[in-house]
Amino acid sequence: MASWAGLTMSRCPVCSRLTDVCEQGACRECAQQLTVRKGGYCTRCGELFADDDSPPMLCGECRTTPTPWEALHFHSIYTGPLRHLILKYKFSGALGHATLLGNLAVQAYTRRDGQKPDIIVPVPLHKRRLLWRGFNQSAELSKALGKHTGAPVIHAALQRVRYTRPQTQLDLAQRQSNIKSAFTATRELVEGKHILLVDDVYTTGATLRECARTLMQAGTASINVFVLARALR
């Protein structure tokens, strides 16, 4: 009887326990740890404040030196179950996590969305890294957000034209130098458009800043950014 019951259960992608109660693809306990962060962050760069319950607002740095985008949307901090899911998905071939991560992206964007974007643009991988990994995690998140918003995902809008060292291996100054001039935008696809730029994790923001600057130089009207997770500095 127990074996038959087991056939109706699903294995939680976070804790690997068998459960017959799933919320968005995770067990109830793990789903409770995958809730959207509601406050205590900067609305432009996602800088995390000490008080989690304080209202979202601009941090001091963004008041004096604004980001090249207007708003940043993210699910929660890059730690715990969310970090585990992203790392397994990107580097261990856990492609089954795509649905759950897509659901989390839509949940976060739904809570914070404003103007519907004209197009969605994923942060691109260089063709060498795409060949090695087999998929672009930002493009997969973009699919889920595109289905939710009805906005088309335009992969050709932004291309990575220079192969770079992985940003995770570098400090802030090295990241900025490493990513400089690594992208090019297709003007006829982005000019005058309101764009949602999508990536999986925001750490220092160097990659997103370079992408956004490249898009703005090509005539983009405005940019909002979506990431699944905001890393602690």
Notable traits:
233 residues; alpha/beta; Rossmann fold; four-stranded parallel beta sheet; two-stranded antiparallel sheet
Characterization of the model:
The protein is of the alpha/beta class. It has a single domain (20-230), classed as 3-Layer(aba) Sandwich (Rossmann fold). It is 37% helix and 18% strand. The strands form four sheets. Strands 5-10-9-6 form a four-stranded parallel sheet. A two-stranded antiparallel sheet has the order 1-2. It has a two-stranded antiparallel sheet with strand order 3-4. A hairpin with a 2-residue loop joins strand 3 (22-23) and strand 4. Helix 5 (98-112) packs across helix 7. The longest helix is centred in the middle third of the chain and has 15 residues, at 98-112. This is Phosphoribosyltransferase. InterPro entries: ComF/GntX_DNA_util-trans, PRTase-like, PRTase_dom. One of its GO terms (molecular function) is glycosyltransferase activity.
